[in-house]
Design brief:
The complex is a heterotetramer of chains A (321), B (236), C (490) and D (670).
Chain B (H helix, E strand, L loop, with lengths): L7 H22 L3 H26 L3 H27 L12 H24 L8 H18 L3 H23 L4 H29 L12 H14 L1
Helix pairs in contact in B: 1-2, 1-5, 2-3, 2-6, 3-6, 3-7, 4-5, 5-6, 6-7
Chain C lengths: L1 H19 L3 H29 L2 E2 L4 E2 L1 H30 L5 H23 L3 H19 L5 H33 L11 H6 L6 H19 L7 H8 L2 H30 L7 H21 L5 H22 L1 H33 L10 H4 L1 H14 L6 H16 L3 H24 L15 H15 L3 H15 L5
Antiparallel strand pairs in C: 1-2
Chain D lengths: L5 H18 L9 H27 L3 E9 L2 E7 L1 H29 L5 H20 L3 H19 L6 H31 L5 H6 L4 H19 L8 H7 L2 H27 L4 H24 L3 H28 L3 H36 L10 H4 L1 H14 L6 H14 L7 H32 L7 H4 L6 H19 L1 H8 L1 H7 L26 H18 L8 E4 L17 H11 L5 E8 L5 E8 L1 H21 L7 H19 L1
The chains are: A mainly alpha (321), B mainly alpha (236), C mainly alpha (490), D mainly alpha (670).
C-alpha cells in the first residue's frame, strides 16, 4: 500500500481537494452555459456561480423560529462530508494516500451521510415542502444506491479491489479493452449520477415549482452562508460524479507518477473530460423532459438492470479476463 | 374334541356352561326387567352348580366354598336386592323393546364366535382339561358388555354388568379351578359393594333426571360444549 | 415389614374412625393427622429400603419401584389433606355439602388412600385387582358428593366404565393365573408377583399375550388412555377438588404401575416368541394416541377442571409412551415423569380449587384477572401451568427432555409427532390460562382465604428436581429402572 | 479456582443477576429498593459480565467449571471460551446501560398496580438466563437456560397485561419461542444421537453423515431463526418487543436476539463442523429477504417501538447475510474469506446490540416523559429533550450505517466479504453474492430513509400533541445510560481495528484461522483481506470530517456576516406553517409504500367517524401472517373440533368404544 509519510502525496490530496471546491462552480456554469446556448439564450457568464456564492456568504443568514441546532449544523456537515468524499477520488493522479483511507464504499458512505443530514435539515423547520423533499430524496437515493453499488461491484470484482487507485490502476494496466461489463456499468452509473445529482429528468435544479421540487425543497428555508454551503456542496457532488465516471471508465491521461509534467497532463485531460461530460449532460437535459416522481423508480430500475447486466456479463463472459 | 372321552361330570360341566351362555342371550333378548332379574338369578345358580361340579371333578375342595358364596350372592342376595329396587322404583311393569333385535342377536353370536376364535390358540395348548369353557366365558363377558351397550335402562345395564361378573367367575372356575381364596373373597366383597352402590345410584339418578334412561345422562359431553362454543363464537 | 403393615393399617383405621366422628373440625384434623402419620412412616420405610434393599413377604412386597410411589402417594395424600381442610370448610359454609356427607368424605378419603397403598404394596396380582376396584368404589361416592345432576352423571359413568374396564382386567388376571398354574411349583401362589417374575420366561406366550391385552384394556381404562378415558374428565371436573387432586395425582399412577408390572411379566414371557416387543408397541400406541388426542381436547374446554384433567390424560399418555419405548432411558424418563406430573398436577388442582372459589364458578369464561385479584393464586396457577407445560427449570422439562432423547435414540421419526403434541398442548393450555390469570379484576370478584403452602411446597419440589435431580432420587429411580428393564442407567 | 479468572467473574455475573431478582421481592414493601438495590445489582452483574467476557475474549483459552446440578450423569458445566466471552461482553455492555437507565424508567411503575417485584425479578432471571445460555457447555443446561430466558422474557412481555394486545403478543411469543426451543432441542438430539450424549465435547466429536448434518443444521436454523426473528419466523417479534417496558425491549432486541445468534454460531461453526455451502446459500437468501422485508415493514410503522422491532428483523438479516457468506466460503474451501464473513457478522452483532439498545432506551425516554409511542403525535422533541435527542441521533446514524459510526464498519466488512465472490468457482454463486450485496445496499439506504423519517418526525419540526409539547428531559441516570451506549457506538466505529483484532480470537478458536492481514498495518488501518484489496482508516476518516467541518465553519465564515436572524419559516411564502401542516410519518413513507406496494397487505379507506367527520384510515399488514400462520391455526381448531366427537356424552357409546378397543386389540394380537 502507498506510503503515508510521503508529503507530496498529501500535498497532492490537498491540492485536488482545493481543485474540486474551486472547479465545481465552473462545471455548473459550463453546463448552464451550454444549455442556454442550446436554447438560443446567451446565458450567464462562467463566473456567475462564484459571484452567487460570494454574495450569499456576504448576506446574513435567516432561520425560522422552529429551526433546531440540526438545521444550523447541517450545511457544515453536508459540505464537509461532500468535500471529504471528493478528496477520496483520484482527480489528477492515482497514487493518493486518501484512497487508502477510504475506498469506494466509504465514498458512498460519505455521500449517504451528507444526504442524511440534508434530508434532516429539510424536515427540521417543519414545513410541508421540506418533508416532501426529504421523503422524495430518500426514496430516490434508496433506489439509486443498489444500482450504483452494483455498477461499482462490477468494476471492483474485475479489479479485485475496492480501492479506487487500484481499480484505476487495474483498468490502465489492462489497456484498452472493450468490456461489455464496463459498458453496462458505465450506463448504469450515468443514470445513477443523473438521479443522485438531481438533474433532469429526475429533478430540476432550476425550478421552485412546488410539486416538482426535490433538492430545492429541502434547502428551501436556507439563506446566507448556509445556503451557499448547500449549493456549493451540490456543485461539488456533481463534479464528483463527473470525475468518478470519467476517471474510472476512461482513466487514460491520469498521472500515475507524481511529477509536474504528468500532473499537468492529468489536469488538462480531466478538464477536457469534464467539459465533454458537461456538454452531454446539457444536451440530454435539453432534449429530455422532467419525469413524474413515480416514473423515477422505473428509471432507476433501468439503471439497476444495466448494472446487473454488467455484473452478469462480467461473470459469464469475462471470467479470468 | 370328542365328548366320548369325557366323563359324565365333565359333560354336565359343558352343558351347564352352554346353558349359562344361552342365558346371556336370553338376557340380551328379554324386555321385562323382572324377568331379566330371574334369568340373572338362574345364571348365578348354574354357575354355583358348575362350580360344585368342577370341585368334584378336580377335587379342589376350596371351590365348594366359592360355590356356596356364588349361590348365596349371585343367585339369591343380589337378585333379591334388584327385585326390591325394582319394586321401590315401580319398575315391575317396565319393558324395553330392543330396536333392531335381530341385529343385536347376530352381533352377539358374532362376538361369541370371535371370542372362540381368540381363545382357540389357548385351548390348543391343551393346558386345561376344561377345553373351551374359557371361550364360552369370554363370550358371556362380551355379551354382558353388549347388553350394557344396547340397553338404555340403568337397571338393565347393571344386570349386564353382573352377568359379566358371572362370565369372569365362570372363566376363573373353568380355567383355573378358581382363584386363590383370598382373591375370591376380595372379588365377592367388591361385587357386593358394587351392587349396593348401584342401588344407591339408581335413586340418585332417579331424583336427578326422574328416569333411569341413561341416554338422558348427557350433560357432560364435549359435544355439548362444542355447541356452546360455536354459540359463543356466533355471539362474538 | 412392620412399617409397611403400619402404612396400610393407618389409613384403614382412619377410614373406620372418621366414619364415626361427627365433629367436622375434628374429623378434618384427624384426617390430616392420619395422612401425616402415613407419610412419616412411609418415609421411614423408604429409608429402610434404601439401605437394606427390597423386602417382601408372601403377601406384601417393597421394592424400589413401588417404594417411591408409596412415598409419593402418602406425600400427596398429606398435602391434599392439608389443602382440603380449609377448602371443604368453605364448601360446607356455602352449603354445597351436608355434614354427614362430610363424614363420608373424610372416611372415604382415607379408604381411598388405603386402597392405593394396598395396590402398590401387595405382592399378589389378584389383591392388586381387588385394591384397584376398591379404589373405584371408594371414590365413586366422592365424585357424586355434591349430588348435582352433573356430579351424579359423572359418578355413574365413572362407575360403569371403570367397572367394565376392571372386569376385563379380572379376566386378564384369570388368564394370567391360568398360565401361571402350569409353571409355578405351587399353584396356590400363581398370582404371587415375585414367583411369577421368577418364572416369567416359562409362561405360555399365547396366554400371556391374551392376558396382557385384557389387563391393558382394564387398567388402561383407569390410566385414562384414549379411547378408554371418557370417564376421567367427568369424574375430575364434578368431584370435590381435593378428590380431583388425588385422582389425577395418584389413581392414574397406580393404574399405570399395575400396567407396568404386567408388562414386565409379558415381556418375560414373550421374550422368546415371534414378537417380543408386543407389549411395548401397544403401550407406545396407546400413549401416543392419548397424548395427541388429549392435547387437541385442551383447545375446546370451557371448564377449568376438565381442562386440567385432559392435561392429566396427556401426561399419562406420555409416561405410558415412555414405558412402551422401554430401555433404561425411556423407563427412567417415564418414572420421573410420573413423579413430577403427579406433584405438579395435584398442586395445579389445589390452585384451581382456590381459583374457582374466588370466581365462584369453574367456567373458564368467568375466571378472570386472578393475578390482580389474588396474586398468590394467580402466580401459583401461572407457574403451575408453566411447569406442567414442560418449561424449565421445572422438573417436567427434565423428564420430557429425557423422554425425547430416548425417542430420538430408538424412534427418531416419532419425535416429530411428540413435539407437535407438546406444542398443541401448550397452545391449548395457555390460550385458556391467559385470560384467567391476566387482565384487570372483573366485577364482584374478591380474594378468599386460601392456603397456598402445599402449592408452594409442590412447586419448589418440582423446581428442585428440575434444577438438580438429588442423588438419592436418582439412585432410587435407577434401581427401579434396573428392576424393570434389567439394566441400570447410572 | 481464583476469583479473578474470567469464568468465575462470569459466574458471579449470573449470580448477581439472580441476586437482583431475589432482592426485587422486597420492593413490594419498599419500592425505593428498586433504585437502591435491584438495579445496582443488575449493573454489577453487567459489569462483571463485561470484564469477564473481555478477559476471556483476549485471553483466548477456554476454562470450564462443573456445577452439581442437572442430571445425575450429566452435570451442568459452565464453559467460557472466546466465543462465549465475546457474547458475555456484549450482554454486559448493554445490561450496564439498562441498569443505569432502569431506575429512572421504573419509577413510573412504583405507583399504579403493576408489580415491581415481578418487573425486577423477571428482569434479573432474564439476564441470568441469557448469561447462562452463553456459558452452557452441554445441551441440557443450554436448553434449560434457553427456556428460562424465553419464559422470563415472556412474563416481561405480559408485564402490563391489562391491555389485550399485550396478552395476545405474549401468547404468540410464548408459543413460537416454544416451537423454536423444541426445534433446537431436536437439533441437539440429532447431534447427540451420533455422538454419545449431550455434552458439547461429545457433539464436537460426533461424525454425521452429510444428510443428517443438513437435518441438524435445518433444525438449528429454524429454532434459532425463530428466536432471532428471521422472516418468515419473525411474526412474534414486532408484537412482543414493543409491549414490554422499554428497557426490557432494549434487552430483548439488543441482547436476546444476539443470544440466538450465539446459539446458531455455536451450533453450526463449533459443534456441527464440516460445512456445506448449500447451508450458506440458505442463510444468505433468508438473511437478505429478512433484511429487506424488515426495513420495508419498519418504514410502514408509525409506532416508534414497533418500528424499532422491525429494524431488529432487518439487522438480524444483515448478520445472517454475513454468516451465510462465511458458510459459503468455508463450504467451498476459502477459509480466510469464511473468517472474514464470520467476523463481519459478529461485528454487526455487537453493533446492533449497542445501537438498538440505545434506540430503545431513547424510545423509552420519550415514552417516559411524553407518554407517547405514536410518532404521528410527536415532533420537536429535540429542543425539549436535547440530550436524548443527541444520543438518539447517534443511534440513528449508527443504524443507518453512516461513517464514522459503528454500523458502517460492519456493513463495510460484509460488503468486503461479498465482494470476494470472484474467488468462487461456481458462476451462480459468483452472481448470487453481489446480488445479496445489492440487497444489502438497498436495505442500508432504506434504513437511512426510515431513520430520517423517525428523527425528522419525532425530534424535529413542531410538537403535534399537547403531552409532547409538555415533554421534559429525563433523569440524569436515564441520560447516562443512553450516553454510555452512544459512546460505545462511536468508539466501535472509530476503532474497528482494535475490535477486529479482538474478534480474531473467535475464528482462531472455531476454525483455526484468523484474519492474518486485517491489522497488519497497525491500529490505524483496517485491511480485512490485504492492503491493496481494500483498506479503511476510521480514525483518519473522523479526522478528515472534523477537518472539513472546521474548514467550512471557520475559514469560510471569515468575512461573512456572523449573526443569524430568526423569523417565521418562509415555506415559499405560504401562510406560516403550523404543526398540522408538517409532513407526517405516513406521508413520508407514502412514496416507498407505493413503490413496494406489492409486498404489503394495505387496507386504505375513508370512514365516517362518530363525530360525522370523514377519517382516512390506513393499515399496512404483514402478508406472512395470512400466508403461513392462519392456516395452521385453522387446522388446529378444526382438528380439535373433530376430536371432541369422541366425548359424545352417552355412556353406552363409551362402552361401545371400550368393547371396540378390546375387540380390535384381540384381533391385532391373534
Amino acid at each position: 500500500m502507498v506510503d503515508f509519510l510521503n508529503p507530496t502525496g498529501w500535498a497532492l490530496a490537498l491540492l485536488q481537494m482545493l481543485l474540486f471546491s474551486a472547479g465545481a462552480p465552473l462545471l455548473i456554469a459550463w453546463v448552464k452555459r451550454i444549455k442556454s446556448r442550446l436554447q438560443n439564450r446567451r446565458g450567464p457568464s462562467l463566473l456567475q456561480p462564484y459571484q452567487d456564492l460570494r454574495k450569499l456568504f456576504g448576506k446574513e443568514a435567516v432561520m425560522a423560529h422552529t429551526a433546531s441546532p440540526v438545521f444550523r449544523a447541517a450545511p457544515y456537515i453536508v459540505f464537509g462530508a461532500t468535500l471529504v468524499a471528493a478528496s477520496v477520488i483520484p482527480l489528477l493522479a492515482i497514487e493518493l494516500p486518501t484512497t487508502a483511507i477510504a475506498d469506494v464504499i466509504v465514498l458512498v458512505g460519505f455521500l449517504a451521510l451528507a444526504r442524511f443530514f440534508l434530508a434532516l435539515a429539510g424536515m427540521d423547520v417543519g414545513t410541508s415542502f421540506g418533508g416532501m423533499g426529504a421523503s422524495r430524496e430518500m426514496l430516490i437515493s434508496a433506489l439509486a444506491e443498489p444500482a450504483m453499488l452494483m455498477a461499482i461491484f462490477t468494476l471492483t470484482m474485475s479489479a479485485h479491489s475496492t480501492n479506487l487507485s487500484s481499480v484505476i490502476e487495474h483498468v490502465l494496466d489492462a489497456g484498452l479493452l472493450l468490456r461489455p461489463s464496463f459498458l453496462f456499468a458505465l450506463l448504469g452509473l450515468l443514470l445513477v449520477a443523473v438521479a443522485e445529482t438531481g438533474r433532469i429528468p429526475v429533478d430540476n435544479p432550476a425550478t421552485h415549482l412546488e410539486l416538482t421540487m426535490v433538492h430545492e425543497a429541502m434547502i428551501l428555508e436556507y439563506s446566507g452562508r448556509h445556503l451557499a454551503l448547500m449549493e456549493w456542496a451540490a456543485q461539488i457532488k456533481l463534479m464528483l460524479y463527473g470525475v468518478l465516471l470519467s476517471n474510472i471508465f476512461l482513466p487514460w491521461g491520469i498521472a500515475s507518477r507524481l511529477d509536474a509534467g504528468s500532473l499537468l497532463l492529468g489536469l488538462v485531460v480531466i478538464v477536457a473530460k469534464l467539459a465533454v461530460l458537461g456538454v452531454i449532460l446539457a444536451v440530454s437535459e435539453t432534449v429530455v423532459a422532467k419525469m413524474r416522481l413515480f416514473r423515477v423508480p422505473a428509471f432507476l430500475n433501468l439503471a439497476f438492470m444495466l448494472s446487473l447486466l454488467g455484473m452478469l456479463s462480467h461473470v459469464i463472459l469475462e471470467v479470468g479476463a | 374334541m370328542n365328548l366320548m372321552h369325557l366323563s359324565l361330570l365333565e359333560q354336565t360341566m359343558l352343558v351347564l356352561s352352554a346353558l349359562a351362555l344361552f342365558l346371556s342371550f336370553a338376557l340380551l333378548a328379554q324386555a321385562r326387567l323382572t324377568t331379566m332379574v330371574h334369568l340373572f338369578a338362574w345364571q348365578g345358580g348354574l354357575l354355583a352348580l358348575l362350580t360344585a361340579v368342577v370341585a368334584t371333578v378336580g377335587g379342589a375342595h376350596h371351590l365348594y366354598i366359592s360355590a356356596l358364596l356364588t349361590l348365596s350372592l349371585k343367585a339369591l342376595l343380589i337378585p333379591w336386592m334388584l327385585h326390591r329396587l325394582i319394586r321401590r322404583l315401580q319398575l315391575e311393569r317396565h319393558q324395553e323393546r330392543l330396536e333392531r333385535q335381530a341385529l343385536v342377536m347376530m352381533s352377539g353370536a358374532a362376538l361369541v364366535i370371535f371370542s372362540y376364535w381368540v381363545v382357540l390358540p389357548v385351548a390348543r395348548l391343551e393346558l386345561a382339561d376344561t377345553r373351551n369353557v374359557v371361550s364360552l366365558s369370554l363370550g358371556i363377558i362380551q355379551l354382558g358388555m353388549l347388553l350394557m351397550v344396547v340397553r338404555r335402562q340403568a337397571v338393565a345395564q347393571v344386570i349386564g354388568f353382573m352377568s359379566m361378573e358371572n362370565g369372569l367367575f365362570l372363566a376363573a372356575v373353568a380355567a383355573t379351578q378358581g382363584m386363590p381364596l383370598v382373591v375370591e373373597l376380595g372379588i365377592a366383597f367388591d361385587v357386593l359393594v358394587a351392587a349396593v352402590l348401584f342401588g344407591v345410584f339408581f335413586f340418585h339418578i332417579r331424583e336427578s333426571i326422574d328416569s333411569l334412561d341413561v341416554d338422558l345422562l348427557t350433560r357432560l359431553s364435549e359435544a355439548e360444549q362444542e355447541k356452546l362454543a360455536s354459540e359463543a363464537e356466533g355471539d362474538a | 415389614m412392620n412399617e409397611l403393615y403400619l402404612i396400610l393399617a393407618l389409613p384403614a383405621i382412619g377410614a373406620v374412625v372418621l366414619g364415626l366422628v361427627r365433629n367436622l373440625r375434628m374429623a378434618s384434623w384427624i384426617n390430616l393427622g392420619v395422612s401425616a402419620a402415613t407419610f412419616v412412616v412411609s418415609v421411614m420405610l423408604a429409608l429402610r429400603v434404601l439401605e437394606q434393599g427390597p423386602m417382601h413377604s408372601d403377601k406384601l412386597l417393597v421394592d424400589p419401584f413401588n417404594i417411591y410411589l408409596l412415598v409419593l402417594t402418602s406425600f400427596i395424600g398429606l398435602t391434599t389433606a392439608i389443602f382440603s381442610r380449609p377448602y371443604m370448610e368453605h364448601v360446607c359454609h356455602t352449603g354445597q355439602c351436608s355434614p354427614q356427607r362430610m363424614r363420608l368424605y373424610h372416611s372415604m378419603f382415607q379408604a381411598f388412600m388405603f386402597t392405593m397403598l394396598l395396590a402398590l404394596s401387595t405382592n399378589n396380582l389378584g389383591i392388586l385387582w381387588v385394591a384397584v376396584e376398591g379404589a373405584t368404589l371408594a371414590t365413586v361416592l366422592l365424585v357424586s358428593l355434591y349430588r348435582t345432576p352433573e356430579a351424579i352423571e359423572a359418578a355413574w359413568k365413572y362407575f360403569i366404565l371403570c367397572g367394565v374396564g376392571i372386569a376385563q382386567a379380572l379376566f386378564g388376571t384369570v388368564l394370567l393365573y391360568f398360565a401361571a398354574q402350569h409353571v409355578v411349583p405351587n399353584a396356590e401362589d400363581g398370582l404371587n408377583w415375585l414367583v411369577l417374575y421368577q418364572h416369567a420366561g416359562e409362561l405360555s406366550p399365547t396366554v400371556m399375550g391374551l392376558a396382557f391385552v385384557f389387563l391393558l384394556v382394564g387398567y388402561g381404562t383407569k390410566v385414562g388412555l384414549v379411547p378408554l378415558h371418557q370417564w376421567l374428565p367427568d369424574a375430575h371436573s364434578e368431584g370435590p377438588t381435593p378428590m380431583s387432586a388425588v385422582l389425577s395425582g395418584l389413581l392414574l399412577n397406580v393404574a399405570l404401575y399395575a400396567v407396568v408390572r404386567i408388562k414386565m411379566l409379558t415381556d418375560g414371557a414373550l421374550a422368546t416368541s415371534g414378537h417380543p416387543h408386543m407389549a411395548g408397541y401397544l403401550l407406545m400406541g396407546f400413549g401416543l394416541t392419548s397424548f395427541l388426542v388429549a392435547g387437541l381436547f385442551l383447545h375446546r374446554q370451557r371448564d377449568i377442571k376438565r381442562l386440567f384433567s385432559y392435561s392429566s390424560i396427556e401426561h399419562m399418555g406420555l409416561a405410558t409412551f415412555g414405558f412402551g419405548i422401554g430401555g433404561p432411558l425411556g423407563t427412567f424418563a417415564a418414572l420421573l415423569h410420573m413423579l413430577v406430573h403427579s406433584i405438579t398436577k395435584s398442586s395445579i388442582f389445589i390452585t384451581v380449587g382456590h381459583a374457582s372459589h374466588i370466581a365462584g364458578t369453574q367456567a373458564i369464561d368467568h375466571i378472570r384477572g386472578l393475578i390482580r385479584t389474588q396474586p398468590s393464586v394467580g402466580w401459583g396457577l401461572l407457574f403451575g401451568v408453566a411447569a406442567i407445560a414442560g418449561f424449565p427449570p421445572f422438573g417436567v422439562f427434565t423428564s420430557e427432555f429425557l423422554l425425547l432423547s430416548a425417542t430420538i435414540q430408538s424412534w427418531p421419526w416419532l419425535t416429530v409427532s411428540l413435539l407437535t403434541g407438546l406444542v398443541i398442548a401448550l397452545a391449548g393450555l395457555f390460550r385458556h390460562l391467559h385470560p384467567m390469570v391476566y387482565g384487570a379484576v372483573p366485577e364482584g370478584q374478591t380474594a378468599v382465604k386460601v392456603n397456598m403452602i402445599p402449592v408452594a411446597i409442590h412447586l419448589l419440589l418440582v423446581l428442585w428436581i428440575g434444577l438438580a435431580i438429588p442423588a438419592f432420587l436418582a439412585n432410587w429411580l435407577d434401581q427401579a429402572v434396573q428392576l424393570i428393564t434389567g439394566e441400570g442407567l447410572l | 479456582m481464583n476469583l479473578a479468572s474470567p469464568l468465575s467473574l462470569a459466574g458471579l455475573a449470573a449470580a448477581m443477576a439472580l441476586l437482583s431478582a431475589l432482592a426485587s421481592l422486597l420492593t413490594q414493601q419498599t419500592p425505593s429498593l428498586m433504585r437502591r438495590l435491584v438495579m445496582p445489582a443488575l449493573g454489577a452483574s453487567g459489569a462483571l459480565a463485561l470484564v469477564g467476557g473481555v478477559l476471556a475474549l483476549l485471553g483466548g483459552q477456554a476454562e470450564t467449571l462443573s456445577l452439581p446440578m442437572g442430571l445425575p450423569w450429566l452435570h451442568w458445566e459452565l464453559r467460557l471460551d472466546v466465543l462465549s466471552g465475546f457474547f458475555m461482553a456484549l450482554i454486559g455492555a448493554v445490561v450496564i446501560g439498562v441498569a443505569i437507565y432502569g431506575p429512572g424508567y421504573a419509577r413510573e411503575f412504583e405507583h399504579g398496580n403493576d408489580s415491581l417485584p415481578a418487573l425486577g425479578g423477571f428482569t434479573g432471571i432474564f439476564v441470568a438466563g441469557m448469561q447462562l445460555v452463553v456459558l452452557a457447555n452441554d445441551a441440557f443446561m443450554f436448553m434449560v437456560a434457553w427456556e428460562v430466558m424465553s419464559l422470563s422474557s415472556y412474563l416481561l412481555v405480559a408485564f402490563q397485561h391489562e391491555h389485550a394486545p399485550n396478552r395476545r403478543a405474549a401468547f404468540l411469543y410464548l408459543l413460537m419461542a416454544h416451537v423454536g426451543g423444541l426445534s433446537i432441542l431436536l437439533g441437539y438430539g440429532v447431534l447427540a444421537g451420533f455422538g454419545d450424549g449431550f455434552s458439547f465435547e461429545a457433539m464436537r466429536a460426533a461424525q454425521l453423515s452429510p444428510g443428517w448434518a443438513s437435518v441438524a443444521f435445518l433444525l438449528a436454523f429454524v429454532g434459532f431463526g425463530m428466536k432471532a426473528g428471521l422472516i418468515p419466523l419473525h411474526v412474534w417479534l414486532p408484537e412482543a418487543h414493543p409491549v414490554a417496558p422499554s428497557h426490557i425491549s432494549a434487552l430483548m432486541s439488543g441482547v436476546m436476539l444476539k443470544v440466538a445468534v450465539y446459539g446458531f454460531v455455536r451450533f453450526t461453526f463449533d459443534l456441527l463442523g464440516d460445512f456445506q455451502w448449500q447451508w450458506g446459500v440458505l442463510a444468505l437468501v433468508i438473511g437478505a429477504v429478512s433484511a429487506l422485508m424488515g426495513v420495508l415493514y419498519a418504514l410502514m410503522q408509525h409506532d416508534l417501538k414497533r418500528l424499532l422491532a422491525y429494524h431488529s428483523v432487518e439487522n438480524i438479516g444483515i448478520i445472517y447475510i454475513g454468516l451465510g457468506l462465511s458458510l459459503i466460503f468455508l463450504g467451498t474451501g476459502h477459509a480466510l474469506l469464511g473468517v472474514l464473513g464470520l467476523v463481519a457478522a459478529l461485528y454487526h452483532t455487537i453493533n446492533h446490540a449497542l445501537f438498538k439498545g440505545l434506540l430503545f432506551l431513547g424510545a423509552g425516554a420519550i415514552l417516559h416523559s411524553a407518554h407517547e409511542r405514536d410518532m404521528e403525535r410527536m415532533g420537536g422533541l429535540l429542543r425539549r429533550m436535547p440530550w436524548t435527542g443527541l444520543f438518539f441521533l447517534v443511534g440513528c446514524i449508527s443504524i443507518s450505517a453512516l461513517p464514522p459510526f459503528n454500523g458502517f464498519v460492519s456493513e463495510w466488512l460484509t460488503f468486503q466479504a461479498a465482494l470476494q465472490a470472484w474467488a468462487l468457482q461456481s458462476g451462480v454463486l459468483r452472481t448470487l453474492l453481489p446480488l445479496a450485496a445489492a440487497m444489502l445496499a438497498l436495505t442500508g439506504a432504506l434504513a437511512a430513509a426510515c431513520f430520517v423519517k423517525v428523527y425528522g418526525v419525532a425530534f424535529l419540526g413542531q410538537a403535534r400533541s399537547r403531552p409532547v409539547r409538555r415533554a421534559r428531559e429525563v433523569t440524569l441516570g436515564m441520560r447516562i445510560g443512553q450516553g454510555w451506549l452512544a459512546a460505545l457506538c462511536l468508539a466501535l466505529g472509530v476503532l474497528p481495528t482494535v475490535v477486529v483484532g479482538a474478534l480474531n480470537g473467535i475464528p482462531q478458536q472455531l476454525l483455526g484461522q484468523g484474519l492474518t492481514q486485517s491489522t497488519a498495518h497497525g491500529w490505524l488501518w483496517l485491511t480485512p483481506v490485504s492492503a491493496d484489496t481494500a483498506s479503511y482508516s476510521a480514525p483518519f476518516v473522523l479526522i478528515g470530517l472534523m477537518l472539513a467541518w472546521w474548514l467550512a465553519s471557520t475559514v469560510l465564515r471569515r468575512g461573512a456576516v456572523r449573526k443569524v436572524r430568526r423569523c417565521d419559516a418562509w415555506d415559499c411564502g405560504f401562510a406560516p406553517p403550523n404543526a398540522r401542516m408538517q409532513y407526517t410519518a405516513t406521508a413520508f413513507a407514502q412514496p416507498i409504500r407505493r413503490v413496494f406496494g406489492g409486498l404489503f397487505e394495505i387496507e386504505e379507506g375513508v370512514s365516517q367517524g362518530e363525530d360525522g367527520r370523514e377519517r382516512h384510515s390506513l393499515h399496512v399488514n404483514d402478508r406472512i401472517w395470512g400466508w403461513i400462520y392462519l392456516p395452521i391455526v385453522r387446522a388446529t381448531n378444526a382438528a380439535a373440533r373433530r376430536v371432541t366427537l369422541i366425548q359424545s356424552g352417552n355412556v353406552r357409546i363409551y362402552l361401545g368404544w371400550s368393547l371396540g378397543t378390546l375387540v380390535v386389540l384381540l384381533w391385532l394380537i391373534s
